[in-house]
Task: structure prediction
Amino acid sequence: MVATNEIPQASVKSDKSSIKRIARFMAFRVFMLIVTIVIGVYATILIANMGGYVDTIMRNSIRESAIMKVSAMTANKAVEPEARQKMVEDLIRLEEKRNGLDTPFFIRSFRYLENGLKLELGRAKNMASDSGSRTVRLILLERLPATLLLMGSSQLILFFGSVFFALALSRKYGSFWDKVIIALSPTSAAPPWFYGIFFILIFAAFLRILPFGGMVDSPPPTNTIDYILDVLKHLILPASSLIISSWFLSIYNWRTFFLIYSSEDYVDMGKAKGLSPKDIERRYILRPTMPTIITNFALLVIGLWTGATITETIFLWPGLGRTIFRAIGLYDTAVIVGSTIIYAYLLAITVFILDFIYVIVDPRVKLGGGNQT
Amino acid sequence: MMVTLKKWFSEFKQFPSAIVGAIIVLMLVLLAIFAMIKIPYSEAIRLWRGGEEVWYQNPKNVPPVWYNWFTREKLPETIAVKAGIDEEFTKLAGTNAAGNPTFDFEYSFEYAYDAFPQELFLYFNTQYETKQPFVSVKLIRPDGEELSIGDFGTPSKFTYRFSQDSNLSKRVNRIMRRQMINPIDGIFAIPESDPTEPMKGMYTLAIQGITFEKESDINVEFVMHGKVAGWFGTDHNRRDLAVAMLWGAPVALAFGLLAALFTSVLSMIIAAIGAWFGGWVDELIQRITEINLVLPFLSILIMVGTFYSRSIWVILGVTVALSIFAGTIKTDRAIFLQVKEATYIEAAKAYGANDLRIIFRYLIPRIIPLLIPALVSAVPSYVFLEASLAVLGLGDPVLPTWGKLINDAQTFGALYKGMYYWILQPAVLLMFTGLGFAMLGFALDRIFNPRLRDM
Result:
């Protein structure tokens, strides 16, 4: 999907034909991305409704609550069983119509798809935002700041920290610290929540210096500065578990990646020419690796959207990941599909923009030319 | 073949982490085999999901016995003895003047702990026609004092709880000369001590039973719920955590290995087919991979778990289905595209080998050295995936697993209440599993991938 290693092809073409080529390439790219989004979103809609199975669950719960309601209404009245049955049926029909269950799932699924693609995310059935709204957009937006704070801070530190350390290590590989990083990289086999449990154990349960979870103390501080400090205090443990669980492997991967590029012939050539190590690093190592670095960074940025479901659950962090988890528990498919649609759009836009960024940062790449690998 | 194996082995020995990893993996396999032999599957399920009648011997929420090795204050261990079956609990049968059987039960135990047990029980199981047997229970304490516990008739199934007997409570209060909150403490306390201090030494439980019918019989079981139990402690349901700790190993290994194996082998075959046929087949595979990138992996798994089934096999199937069309298919395809151009493939084509033969005999074997490290390195992520789903409350409803222990501990606030063993024990095993496979896979990668070897 992401053309990272476009092989430069020596070809001399006029400006006109290159504009044509770029236009054709873009049109094809956009078309393929749209097809991908449509199929991906429709697949999610089907899965989120379990191919219509969720309808059955909802029908059953509507029937149950209708029977309960009618028997409560008619508890102290003499009502004929037939009349009572009719009341139940009427109530069920009304509720099913309200939930759109009177149209077959197959037709509804396309309606969901159309609305979703138009970013009309609809309304949640059982969930509500803290402000009481049932609009999916508001439910998701309300959680976005918490997720952005947690994921943003941890992923940015992780990304820039590991690239920076990896560059430093690749300069002198085989050193003590290099070996330490290699030896520690298997620790990344464990997911963040796993480190989270240990962090809670050490810093919250045993040392009692940091909170167990949540985002702010209860009651929250009234003073703005205190509030910020309080949120930061709650941020330390979840953010560090997200960072530590990928830290060593991330450094190791970047370091190996940089090493492969620094064993290229042109780097040796640069050294032979007597260029300073700084120049070599900037011009011969960072420059050709830039597309990969940018790709990873872009994927990281859109990855923020999905949140970290389990880490947020362990730390009771009120982010998007936990909201989606709750939505699933409440059979609120609109929230799940909504979040997926936004992710799909973000991914498609990023992929599309990346193609242009490659051309800017790497002169060897040409749009629409070369074979994709 | 032998030579290559030897070469690999000698290279393998150069990586200490590989050896450590291999040892850990081997130990886990042994643990899994041990678990399956020691506690057969049906027995494990019975022990894990049985109910009070299976777990009554265990105290609630207590740490493992080895806690005492590290603390100055020794906590009482759990005792469960059946008269006549366990040797220390003697059952002497006799006859009284009327010719009816009488029984003398005696059980001596050393009490050298610094705390008091949670609860004491006597479980009676008697046989009679019309008139129930009668027992009198005494406890002879280390100072020689005889504490009368109680005299009562025993129906065919009868449970005597020491703490619920108000008469015993009164007697204990008399000895202690104050109102005891828990009479159990008073039973093992130095008289009149305040704060209550345990009296250490030999205690003897003596039970005299009289029956009124020739065919009558009395059986008794003595259970003392201590404050430590088993090698792994117990949970809120009195379940011995050993069951889940042991059975977690085969479950985790099976899930991790099967998921890694299916995923990598299937995606390798699909990549080979795509690379070999090219054209629309290849294009289709590429598109499916892209669409798969949009699908929310974890959300789908959670949805399947919530809406459909939490069975570990269903989850395994969905995991594999969603992981086939992922990053590995791209790397595999890139390698296959290179291999495809090799001259021996040309030769195979020339002699008329069909497509399937080329794919399975010539393309795929070339990639196996790369497949093995990738497979081993993928195992931890699947082991942790299973645990992660369990932590979200979506663990298999039947099987005892490490993830479910952590989930239980999490739900019942083990960390808040200081029951660290509950969460740490499964966590340590999970960590060993993850580290073992990761270290092994890492080293294998460097052995099989010559490009990485010098780096």
